[in-house]
Specification:
The structure is a homodimer of 320-residue chains. Chain A is an alpha/beta fold and 320 residues long. Chain A has 2 domains: 169 residues, Alpha-Beta Complex (Quinone Oxidoreductase, Chain A, domain 1), CATH 3.90.180; 124 residues, NAD(P)-binding Rossmann-like Domain (Rossmann fold, 3-Layer(aba) Sandwich), CATH 3.40.50. Chain A is 25% helix and 28% strand. Chain A has 10 helices and 18 strands. In chain A, the strands form 4 sheets. In chain A, strands 3, 4, 5, 8, 9, 17 and 18 form a 7-stranded mixed beta sheet that branches. A 6-stranded parallel beta sheet of chain A has the order 12-11-10-13-14-16, with helices on both faces. In chain A, helix 4 packs across helix 9. Chain A starts with a strand and ends with a strand. Strand 16 of chain A pairs antiparallel with strand 16 of chain B.
């Protein structure tokens, strides 16, 4: 089959890839896949990975494991990206996304979605409601990641919530947090980002406008150390700082203010798909303006180049 | 009056200090004061402070502001160390220990307790129950700090809780956490520390015995970066790491595992006095074995030297 292949930090288009043949998993024909910041960082070599990258997708089930309901075949699905063992302590204790033996779609020990076909355990799949277009469904995974914030931290309607960073993920975070009725502000550097937020009526702040010791909850979504410093400064004592991005390598940090101000810091990663699909079905999150460009799989390398340009939002790849 | 005086990282005994004369505060004759890790660090110059150091004390009220009840006079008291404005945003929002204009007893813009007399706002004082000896009451402040952990984080009886560090504060943390019935383990390096824990039936672990990804809650109470690394390793995904010490200067840290494992980090500082006094009154926390040495105020410098010796627990100074 055709697909993108990442090896030694080189990404190539290949036509000789084997169709996944895990007989205990569902085989899915990928319809549409999205390029995420993690994909771009993998290409830059920040994570070691060999194989087909990509983990945001919507596809159609073409085969199921023996004994499974044939009702799945032909259905549109999205998929939870962590494939888990079910028997380690994390799985048994109800934290499957933290499975100690997990593989992660297009990220860790498992081929991803920038290809014609992908396989995933049937239990990872979620049917896409009729009313959710492919263009919307392909955002289910990053929207789930945005919703993980509210899965972890209670956002009270009366809270002042600051989001720092308004890129691909930051936009979905801002849209989902706005639904809580909280006092939301977003620090967005680029004009295109500001425009998208303004069109949703979301308040935009310049960095210089961010008050010190003021915000109940701050979400850091830039992945830059300057964003983290701004977040700490903005947060009120005993407030909650959500880390929604990873930081490259070692970071130099004065931890004393975190202790003195009794701050809570919460790391946040993958989230729940079902509520993401519900919000998309209800039309409460609008993904259309977040699509910057669209490429065929044969032009996948150009898609990656385009996605890496500053200020780009979501670049989609039509895989079949 | 007599007292210790800290200036330019030099600590001296002086007999010419003015008795505090804040007419809107209570004047307290200090009976007993305790030397804390923070005091030792101030002498080393880690915090800039000029004045009488010390914030752990039990004393007797000798004068109250005009108009206040004379019933206070002659009573034994301990005192909340943060003196607050009552009108800033933090005070108004119910976080008085985070008052933006606060002074802190013997730490920030306010003379402390290694002297014959000290003054504090009346609202900071807590009466000491009859059954609580001076030797116990002097631990009210650090025990309150230990209890701040449970004020911030729900410790479930079924939780596995690891405390790293078993010094002055670590011992009080361990004793108070043991009362929850949780599965408690303490990493204690020094034999004297281990002995104290063993006498309370508290489980001691060597660093090498600490399992990876295992503990629901980990309390870091060493203030050393090696303790922080051990804490992160021990913590299960989505677990809670309580930072109960500050770290000197900038710390180099890889934050990505905190995000990937969705860890919650909680900074923890000053705590509630009333429950500390209740536990002391009920005899549920035993402070007697934690007293390493006792000095007269005239020998205060020797007291500080003794407290700085490795493995020393609480050194007390009899101030009047």
């Amino acid at each position: 089959m055709r697909g993108l292949w990442l090896e030694n930090n080189q990404i190539n288009l290949r036509d000789d890839l084997a169709i996944p043949s895990n007989f205990d998993e569902a085989l899915i024909k990928v319809r549409l896949a999205g390029i995420c910041g993690t994909d771009l960082e993998m290409v830059k070599g920040y994570y070691p990975f060999t194989g087909v990258p990509g983990h945001e997708f919507v596809g159609e089930v073409v085969a199921v494991p023996a004994g499974a309901s044939q009702g799945w075949v032909g259905r549109r699905v999205v998929g939870e990206i962590n494939a888990v063992c079910g028997s380690c302590e994390q799985c048994r204790d109800g934290r499957p996304t933290h499975c100690e033996q997990r593989s992660v779609l297009g990220i860790l020990n498992r081929g991803g979605v920038f290809a014609e076909y992908v396989s995933l355990p049937l239990e990872n799949l979620q049917l896409v409601p009729e009313a959710v277009s492919d263009d919307a469904a392909v955002f289910a995974e990053p929207l789930a990641a945005a919703l993980e914030i509210q899965q972890q931290v209670q956002i009270r309607p009366n809270d002042r919530v600051l989001v720092i960073g308004a890129g691909r993920l930051g936009q979905l975070i801002a849209q989902s947090l706005a639904l809580t009725g909280c006092g939301l502000g977003v620090v967005a550097r680029h004009e295109a980002q500001q425009h998208l937020l303004a069109s949703r009526g979301i308040r935009i702040l310049a960095e210089a406008e961010v008050q010190t010791w003021r915000w109940d909850v701050v979400v850091e979504a830039t992945g830059a150390i300057s964003g983290l410093a701004l977040a700490k400064r903005a947060l009120r004592p005993r407030g909650t700082l959500v880390l929604k991005s990873t930081y490259k390598g070692e970071v130099s940090l004065n931890l004393s203010p975190f202790v003195v101000d009794e701050v809570t810091v919460v790391g946040s990663r993958c989230g729940p798909f079902a509520p993401a699909l519900r919000l998309l079905e209800l039309g409460l999150v609008d993904t259309r303006p977040l699509i910057s460009a669209r490429f065929e799989l044969k032009d996948g390398l150009a898609a990656f180049a385009e996605a890496a340009r500053l200020g780009m939002m979501k670049v989609l790849v039509q895989c079949s």
